[in-house]
Specification:
about 325 residues, alpha+beta, Arc Repressor Mutant, subunit A, 3-stranded antiparallel sheet, two-stranded antiparallel ribbon
Length: about 325
Amino acid sequence: MGMEELHSNLISKLGSEEINVLLKLYYNKSNLTIDLDKSDFDDDVLQNLLDKNLISTNIDDGESVLSLSDEGLNICGTVMFKRISDNKTGLDKKLQELPARAIACLVNRVMWRDIVKKESGYIDEITKPYALDESMWYERVLLKDDRIVKLLGKFYDTLEDFDLIQKIDNTIWCSPEVENFLKDKYKNIMDLSWVEEDSLKYYYFFYVYAQDQKNLIDFSGNGQQFRSMFYEGDSIPQDYWFSSNNSDPRTLLSLLGLSEKRVIDFLERMQQIDIVNERYYPLTSFSFFSEDDKIFVIRDIKAYMDFITNKFLKSIVDSLINN
């Protein structure tokens, strides 16, 4: 009898609560342990899993800790492979109702990045600025379009309907088997062209540009709605993507592979329609370009955000969801 058959026989003898406990441990990939004293698992279920050597307990810093055994890990993988196989036809039918390019983009560029669900919907939880030696995740700007946020939520709901993901404490957990299945399914569908990638990078830059000079922005009037995008009390804002304290934005331009001349051209275009004003600030910490004392101060934040959204983001999302 092969290992797969042995696992299948063992799974068939497990109750649903036992499988649920195993999967809760399995989904939490970053920490495959749960404090036994604080868990709400049924004692009889835990004892059954201990007797079957699928979980183990140990003492860590004076606390009883519950974790998966190697056999428990293997069982969880087999369970997820079987769920994918059993639901493939129904899942494929549901996924055909969603825009393929947009879903491919989510699978290849956006998911697996600590996406969580809160009352306002699925959002990107960023808790610290990116260090210079980390890659720039410019695709996150897609989540600035509500249509992508709603589509991501619908996609997660579809996966949840087939028990392929689980929501634990408002966090979306997905097994490696499901992640690999989705990546393989959408690997041959083009998500973003290089032109679209470039456009998202410019949006990323201009968004950071506004963040890094937020103290110079007038948020009165219609601009008030954008204040929360740049201010979150004393903590690092959730949407803060890059810290100018680490490097001047010319370095960000270089990391993103963008043209300083094109950036200035766009700013000069915005200046012509009174969105920004060119100013000279000798020895300023806000210098952005080769002329160390020149910056473009945002005078109309609403018009500025509308400009970069329409110029660099909206048409890409239009294309993703309509093709």
